[in-house]
Every structure is written in C-alpha cells, then in structure tokens.
Amino acid sequence: MSTTSQKKSSNQHAEAKPLNSAPTSEAPVVDSRPNYSVFTTWEKRSIVLGAAAAAFFSPLTAQIYLPALNLLTIEFNISEAQANLTVTTYMIFQGIIPMFIGSFADSTGRRPAYMICFVIYLAANIGCALAPSYVALLILRMLQSAGSSTTVALCQAVVADIITSAERGQYVGLVTVPVILAPALGPVIGGLLSQFLGWRWIFWFLTILAGSVFVVYALFMPETCRNIVGDGSIHPHPFYRTFWQLTKDVYHKRKIKSNGVKPDWQQTTSQAPEKRKFKMQRLNPLRSLTILFEIEMFLLLMYSSLIFAGFYAIATSMPSQFADLYGFDELQVGLMYLPLGGGSVIAAVIMGKLVNWNYRRHCKKLGIPFERTKEQDLSEFPIEKARLEIGIPLLLFSAVVLLAWGWAMQYRAHLAVPCVLLFLMGIGLIGFSNTTNTLIVDVNPGNAGAATASNNLTRCLIGAAASALIDPMIKGIGSGWAFFIIGMLQLIGAPVLWLIMKNGIKWRKDKEKRKQARRQNKENNTLVT
C-alpha cells in the first residue's frame, strides 16, 4: 500500500534529520516520497465539494423540519414533547447508523456506502411526505436519519483520503460551509414550505433536491478510499467507477482495437498494483466502538459533544421560545436561524486558514519541512497542540455566549440581542468544531470513516438528550438557569483539552504499540495453525 511506504519513508527521513537539528552545509535532502494523492488541486476541490453537497442533507433534514413542529401538534393532536420526540429519535439514529456504514466505507469503499445512503434517504422522504399518522412519521424519520446521517462521516473520510494534514484544516473548513449553511437555511425553507404549501412539502422538496445530487454523484464522483484506489492511481473494479469513467474505458478499448495504443490509465499507473476486485465487506460497528474507547478519542469526543449539546439545546428550543415570547410564526422562526448560519460561515472560512497556519508554525518551530502534497509522519508531531491552540479560545467564547443567551431569553431581551448572540455562537461553536473534526481525522489515519462515525455517535446521543431535556428544563427552572447549567458544564470540563495536548503524543505511541502487538499475535497464531 502507498500509505505504508509513505510512513516508512517519513520515519527514515525523521531519523536522518532529527527535530531541532542544527543547520549544516550539506546539500538539502530531496524528499523522494510520492505525492499523497494523484488528484490535481481542482479535482480535489471538486471531490470535496461534491462530498460536502451530500453531507448537506444530514443537518438540513434535521433543521428544515423544526418550524413545522407546531403544525404537527395540531394535525396529529400531540404534545410539544411528542413532536420533539421526532427530533430526538432522528438524532439517536444519526449517531448509531454511521457506526455501521462508516466502517463499511473504510473497507468496501465510499461509493457503495453513498449509494446505500441515497437509496434509503429517498425512500424515507417519500414515506414521510405520505405519512398517515404520528407513529408512521416517527418511524419514517428514523429511516430518514439512517439514510442521511452517514454522509457527514463519509465527507470527512473523503477529505482524509485525498488531503494531507498540512492542508486538512482549510479543506475541513470548506466542507463545513455547506453543512453549516443547512441549519441556517433549513428553517427558512421549512418555514416557507410549511406556511404556504404545508409541512408535507418539506419532504417532497428534500426528495427532489437529494435525487438531483444523487444523479450527479453517480455520474461523476470517483472512488477515493485508499484501501480501494490507493493514492487514486489504482484502476478499481467497474463497480466503483463512475458513468464518466466507464464511458472513457469504452473509448480506450476501441482505441486499443483500432491502433493498439494503451489506455491512459495503463500508461500512468504501470507501477500501481493490478486492478482491484470488488468484495463486499460485513457491516462492523465494533471498529467505531473500539475507537471510541481509546483514551484520547474518548476525552475528545465526549467533550466536543458536550459543546455541541449547547447548539442542539438552542436549535430545538427556538421554535417554541420565539413563538411564546415574540409571537413569531413559522417563517419568522426560520429567519432567526440565519444569524447562526452567518457566524458559522465566517468561522468556517477564517478558522481553516488559522488551523493550517498554526500547523506550519509548529513545523517551523520543530525544524520539520512543510510539505503540502506529502503526508507528514505525526508520530512525534504535537498535532493536538497545533489544532487545539486555535480551538480552545473559541470554545471559551461560545460557552460565555451560551450563558448570555439563556438570560436574554429569560428576560425577553430586545430582538437584536438574540440575533447578535446567535451570530457569535456560530463563530465560536463552528470554529471549535472545525478544529476537533480535523484532529479526529489526523489521529485516525486509515480509519477516518469509523472515527467520524464515533464522533457522530457521541454528538448525536448527547445532543438528543439535550434536545429532549431542554423544554422540561426551561419550563421547570427557566431559560436562564437551564442554559447556565449547560454553559458551566462546558467551562468546568475545559481542562480535558489541556490533558489531550499534554499527553497526545504518548497516547498515540501507546496505541500504535498495542496495534503492533495485536498484529504480531495474529501472525503468530496464523503460523501455529
């Protein structure tokens, strides 16, 4: 595999030139490692944007539905708590399902996983649009979540497939833009559709939009999984190839018959392994659970999920709070999500560049050559510091904004106050989320899909608890104290990030030793049998 050869090469390079070594008069050593990916910059951006477009549906489906919650209580004669349960169950499945499909995508490929997700999602949307009862809607929302939720994990995995650690911060910011626009635009679209066409048209709209993206993906998005195509140069089984690639294959075969010229892929990948066969792998959620219980990942995932719980609490409570306190209808409630999206977009654009800048700063500090197109050996590199030094100030900022939000709603502040607070919350929360998402991919090379699925699991389960509890908390102790509790939990837990920065390298080395020991035991058992 090309990944293994890169690691060996980078280890040899590190031994030849220690960190912080004094400069010598010798000629600089030329880095002969191959590029991490054969895709051009334009191709990488197109692939990442395509993956982000698919990931758009997971948060969009969750948020576009919120302005219609009040209408559901009327149509199905249910309580607010029962209506919120359709959000809670969606989030539970949003956390569980990626554990199965994420590990499947790491071994079997990204395209098969995407195809499964889109088919399930389209069928569920049609069912939701025709749902005759509350129970039917509740069940179909679970199925809808099963289809859309894994696209976020797959998007992060695609970034890990083709983008190096040196560039990853900016690309993670790039994929975040469509994902964070969804929570901002979703309620506006949902409010318009539910107010003028009825809440069922929300699901017809999602069906049409997802169907269009599915067609484009099936036609043009290539397979990127490194277990299938390596750095992108390996010619995979036709099952993995797009309609565009298959059309080129037919053209090349005709070219061979006419003048005996080799097809382009054979000319450019003569040194690559032979064509990979398609092999369907079993769904294995244990890989994501194993990652979850590694100490570094456990602390990082649990704490980042606690931060996101504040977002879920705000997003879920906004429809009822703005309706009760300000007398807003569905469309007006939807418009109130726009400041949150505006702050999130600014954070995504700026923080990606800051994360990359801090990575370069640490490379310069340690005397490590900075290479954009070649993957860096991170075994001795303080990647936790490079990421979290940018994220921690944003985390503290968002926690303080969360405290202010609760009391602003408690005392029914002027409408400008919640608008400003939502904008600031978007900057702090999404900025911190970008740094943690990047770090999760960095410390799990080769398992980006399963690692991001673990992230989804913790975020969605804790977020589901927050969305289910926030309404009773507000009614019981008021908005001020409800959000004060959440904000203080975030501030009290902040030292966990210091532990991660201090012990990250040691924990990663210990994990690698355990992995090598398991591999050795497996080889010994094979020899015995």
Please specify the SSE layout and strand pairing.
Blueprint: H1 2-16, H2 41-55, H3 57-63, H4 69-75, H5 80-108, H6 110-129, H7 134-148, H8 150-162, H9 165-196, H10 200-220, H11 226-229, H12 243-259, H13 264-268, H14 286-292, H15 295-326, H16 330-335, H17 338-366, H18 383-410, H19 416-442, H20 448-492, H21 495-528
Helix pairs in contact: 2-8, 2-9, 3-9, 4-5, 5-6, 5-7, 5-8, 5-14, 5-20, 6-7, 6-8, 6-10, 8-9, 8-20, 9-17, 9-19, 14-20, 15-18, 15-19, 15-20, 15-21, 17-18, 17-19, 18-19, 18-20, 18-21, 19-20
Q: What is the overall number of helices?
A: 21
Q: Give the low-confidence spans.
A: 1-30, 264-276
Q: Hey, roughly how much beta strand do the residues contain?
A: under 5%
Terminal CA distance: 26 Å
How many domains, as an integer? 1
CATH architecture term: Up-down Bundle
What CATH calls the topology is: Growth Hormone, Chain: A
| Biggest β-sheet description | none
Order of helical and strand elements: HHHHHHHHHHHHHHHHHHHHH
**C-alpha Rg (nearest Å):** 24 Å
CATH class category = Mainly Alpha
How many β strands by DSSP? 0
SSE class: mainly alpha
Principal-axes geometry comes out as globular
The helical percent reads over 70%
Arithmetic mean pLDDT? 80
Assigned CATH superfamily:
MFS general substrate transporter like domains
Pfam family, one: MFS_1
Transmembrane segments: 47-69, 81-101, 113-140, 146-164, 171-189, 201-220, 289-315, 335-355, 390-409, 415-435, 456-474, 480-501
Biased composition (Polar residues): 1-13
Keywords: Membrane, Transmembrane, Transmembrane helix, Transport
